[in-house]
């Protein structure tokens, strides 16, 4: 068995078509078919049922696909990392989620360039989830994200927690209330915008809600508890997770593609949402941003990179980050990435 055979199998398994797989791999259909047949002969196993359209994987083929695709991804990652180790790029490619760009990222990049005038920075708007693959492929060297990830190839550090604020239409009855409670927001349409969901479930009970400082109404707490017990699905949507921590289930939700669309709907009076405090300068003509009384309703900011290859300019980036935090009076715990290469 060799890589050509394995890549041929993966292409056919992904596309369920010899002709489509041949186009993807640049091979002729006879060559592709021959490579796949050689692989099956070497293994003594039929991997693809050729008598169905579209093609089906056999039970053995499905098992082999799940295992070998992970191995091939690791081979690609190791190859990319080896190439970068032998010839590190002078450019620092930084991935970021849009909400970070509205915060301190521009100031951090300006500080980085001030401290290191010779540095060349390339910024890429990319979701927290997609940053994991982008780091492995070499598309980015480091990423700012909002979610913790468990990945054997990635190391990450928590930079800080940023408080959420509630975004309401200027015409909303609560628009001028300076300290908001989640329970008072529960009867509004909550606009959801996260593309990445939490990797863990939240367990919600009426006791959790009672322990908060809110004077929750019995009917609302019971409604939340009933919603949770009736659903077998874990609550992984970040904003719903925040409400669920207090035993609250919003009356109605709408899901949109990104944060800018969510704020556009708020501005149009179509609902409310929660955003990191750094976004409270956006659309201020139509939107009122107010603090939440809950101190633990926060959005973390993580910085992540590869475990086995830390770009030589990343320490400079961390220095700039902590300098800005000190200038702004932001509490943080200084950390550094560990290079294992």
From TrEMBL:
Residues 203-221 have a biased composition (Polar residues). Residues 203-232 are annotated as: Disordered. Residues 1-58 form the HTH lysR-type domain. SUPFAM superfamilies: Periplasmic binding protein-like II, Winged helix' DNA-binding domain. Keywords: DNA-binding, Transcription, Transcription regulation. It holds the Pfam family HTH_1. One of its GO terms (molecular function) is DNA binding. GO terms for cellular component: protein-DNA complex. Belongs to the LysR transcriptional regulatory family. PANTHER family: LYSR FAMILY TRANSCRIPTIONAL REGULATOR, TRANSCRIPTIONAL DUAL REGULATOR HCAR-RELATED. This is Transcriptional regulator, LysR family. It comes from Psychrobacter nivimaris.
């Amino acid at each position: 068995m060799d890589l050509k055979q394995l890549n041929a199998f993966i292409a056919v398994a992904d596309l369920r078509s010899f002709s489509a797989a041949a186009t993807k791999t640049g091979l002729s259909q006879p060559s592709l078919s021959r490579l796949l047949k050689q692989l099956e002969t070497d293994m003594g196993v039929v991997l693809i049922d050729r008598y169905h359209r579209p093609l089906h994987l056999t039970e053995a083929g499905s098992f082999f696909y799940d295992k070998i695709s992970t191995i091939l991804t690791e081979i690609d990652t190791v190859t990319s990392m080896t190439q970068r180790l032998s010839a590190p790029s002078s450019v620092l490619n930084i991935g970021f989620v849009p909400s970070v760009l509205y915060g301190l990222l521009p100031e951090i990049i300006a500080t980085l360039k001030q401290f290191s005038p010779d540095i060349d920075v390339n910024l890429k708007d990319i979701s927290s989830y997609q940053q994991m693959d982008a780091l492995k492929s070499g598309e980015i060297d480091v990423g700012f994200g909002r979610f913790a990830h468990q990945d054997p190839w990635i190391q990450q550090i928590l930079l800080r927690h940023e408080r959420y604020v509630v975004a309401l239409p200027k015409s909303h009855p609560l628009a001028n209330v300076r300290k908001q409670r989640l329970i008072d927001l529960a009867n509004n349409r909550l606009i959801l915008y996260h593309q990445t969901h939490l990797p863990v479930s939240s367990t919600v009970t009426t006791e959790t809600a009672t322990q908060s400082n809110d004077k929750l109404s019995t009917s609302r707490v019971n409604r939340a508890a009933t919603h949770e017990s009736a659903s077998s699905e874990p609550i992984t949507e970040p904003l719903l997770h925040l409400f669920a921590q207090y035993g609250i289930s919003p009356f109605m939700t709408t899901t949109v593609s990104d944060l800018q669309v969510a704020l556009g709907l708020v501005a149009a009076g179509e609902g409310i949402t929660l955003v990191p405090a750094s976004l409270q300068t956006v659309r201020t003509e139509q939107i009122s941003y107010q603090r939440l009384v809950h101190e633990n309703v926060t959005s973390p900011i993580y910085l992540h990179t590869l475990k086995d290859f830390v770009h030589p300019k990343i320490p400079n980036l961390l220095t700039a980050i902590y300098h800005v935090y000190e200038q702004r009076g932001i509490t943080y715990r200084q950390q550094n990435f560990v290079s294992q290469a």
